[in-house]
Amino acid sequence: MTMVFFRGLPDESAPPNWTAAEPCLRARGPHRPSALEWVREAWGRRRSRTCLSQLDDRMLKDIGVTRAEADWEANKPFWLP
């Protein structure tokens, strides 16, 4: 059994212990990206899908993707992940 000693409440002049609150702050939910982050991600998806649509069948076979899967992914709108 572990003994825990109570040392009393901290005095008002002590700085707050923000490190103890950090796990609670992180547990609020998923990170919501800013508008700039969202635009960067959407632009990256568009660029990746454009490159994917330009690969030939041999290259698609190397990465394990069929032509139908590549076409399906390349034709998705940029705002969909």
How would you characterize this protein structure?
This protein is an all-alpha fold and 81 residues long. It has a domain at 35-76. It contains four helices and no strands. The chain has helices at 18-26, 35-53, 57-63, 67-74. 0% of the residues are buried. The model has no long low-confidence stretch (mean pLDDT 80).
Briefly characterize the structure.
The chain has 81 residues and is mainly α.
Ordered list of secondary-structure elements with their pairings:
Blueprint: H1 18-26, H2 35-53, H3 57-63, H4 67-74
Helix pairs in contact: 2-4
- Count the DSSP helices: 4
Order of helices and strands: HHHH
Assembly state (oligomeric): single chain
Query: What class do helices, strands and sheet pairing give?
Result: mainly alpha
Strand content: under 5%
Query: Which shape, going by the Cα principal axes?
Result: elongated
Strand runs, count? 0
**Main sheet characteristics:** none
Low-confidence stretches: none
Provide keyphrases for this structure.
81 residues; elongated
